[in-house]
## 1
Amino acid sequence: MNVYADNAATTKMCAAAIKEMLPYMMETYGNPSSLHSEGQKAAMALQDARERIAARLGCQPDEIIFTSGGSEADNQAVLSAAKFGMEHGKKHIITTAFEHHAVLHTVEALRADGFEVTFLNVHSDGLVVPEEVKAAIRPDTCLVTVMYANNEIGTIQPIFPIGQICREAGVLLHTDAVQAVGHLPIDVKLENIDMLSLSAHKFHGPKGIGALYVRRGIPLHPLIHGGAQERGKRAGTENVSAIMGMAAALEEACDSMNRTSVYLTELRERLIDGLSPIPSSMLNGSPLYRLPNNVNFSFAGIEGESLVLLLDKLGICASTGSACNSSSMMPSHVLLALGRPPELAYGSLRLTLCAENTQAEIDYLIHAVSEAVAELRHKLAGSTQIHL
Ligand SMILES: *Cc1c(COP(=O)(O)O)cnc(C)c1O
């Protein structure tokens, strides 16, 4: 049996996205900046996509900037807030230790430029406590950036109270919502979010396209200089077909969200119940405040990479955690941030589902993971004996 259980790394494109993209590659391929009618048709398509995406986030179309994906949106949001802060003598940033590297490495680069960074405790369940955000805010704080949902352990952060705290304190709030958009209901105005990053390939849209929501009045700084596209905030000819695919995928994800999340929660609980009896295993992240499609376990005494490779032989696509870590033999920074000892952090397995997964696949996953963990431990016990 073949099971794709790595939907936090990327998803299969939905038919609606592909269908919407094709005409913009085959017929309406004009440059949206061109004056002629073919160009203007493309420009109108862009506007249509911008309106449809804004409607799903609860913002205005002119508050959406198209980017090459989640990483670029994260970089632009954090660097813009830092530049704005610096202009006002504010060089303190609050974030968490378990952000995606697109935020973490950007913040670390700012540290080298003299910014001070507070890394909030995420506690053993992977959740930030809003009161601790409040306590960390200083007169020179220019940005709070806390991810909406974690890509490794699926925890959903209390963004609503954090948004209230930031708005009252007059501090900008950015959230990396790449794992949340299309999966959880989001309303940027209601939640007092100033900037939000999203990426199409995490909700069954195309790769290489994303967006940054920026509340009106917040000065955005371009990372890419050149033409006047995206109102001068992001130069370069727009990827019209990908943008249309992103709009179609987002609409489909939002329209089916209630149904999908009920179904996925059922699958997730079945999987967690099935894996929990494995000896010396531990669920990572909150059992309650958790993405409907995320399961993340640690198995003491084994290496996550070996487990992923063994599962691959059994037809299963899984991950140790973040796709960006999977080529380096480092324990996950997310699991270390939760205070997991290295032997548990090394032995992590992330299984992330989508609506195409079936109960029979879940049962196969439970069987295969249980066998694979036992086999790796058996081998390990054998090699220990040889060393003795
Ligand atoms: C995938 C991901 C990103 C990066 O998005 P890309 O579009 O692949 O650049 C950023 N943050 C989170 C939480 C992600 O899961």
## 2
Amino acid sequence: MSPREAELAERLAAVRARMEDARVAAGRDDTPTLVVVTKFFPGSDVELLTGLGVTDIGESRDQEAAEKVAALARREALTVHFVGQVQSKKAGSVARYADVVHSVDRAKLAQALDRGAERAGRVLDVLVQVGLDTAGERGGVAPADLPGLAATVAGLEHLRLRGVMAVAPREGPPRPAFARLRELAEALRVEHPGATWMSAGMSADLEDAVAEGATHLRVGTAILGTRQSHG
Ligand SMILES: *Cc1c(COP(=O)(O)O)cnc(C)c1O
């Protein structure tokens, strides 16, 4: 095992242990999906992670992600999640390689992804990103606008509405924000029973997200380390 593989294996095991402790503490009997966010890190790390049993990776920049995913030896072994902001003009590109888009925050983007998915002959799983901070600085639709945007997504033929995503606000504790997201997710499910996913929790706050019922965690630095200079 190379030093890098040993390092990734150790950090991955530590994150899985944190997830398991949080799951037991929350009395949950389901284990959330771990999306390992590999942005800023090379495809060689993705290959090592795949060998270590990782099934889901996350990316947040279109050009970097497109190149990395195209070069993967075992693309079919992975579900690729796009977790960052998407410019509408990049939607056609993202629709070609992403399996799941976590960050749909406006109707125009949903429509552009739908057209891109149609051209690529694909159907994308989509989460609506909700802004949980009053300033909206971390992105996402205002909670009041979630039902409308979700209805738009649900009405598009090449998108499948799977649920909601959020990033905890910079200020204040994450747990109440994730509790709010859970309420919004539950309310959304009344109209859209298939929207069962809740993407929340990163390296620093994954325990709070597990406690509030997150189905997908997006963890980068706790596994990959801090950003490399070539990012
Ligand atoms: C980078 C990123 C993550 C991972 O964050 P870490 O703190 O490195 O675990 C999760 N979600 C989104 C949207 C990101 O851009």
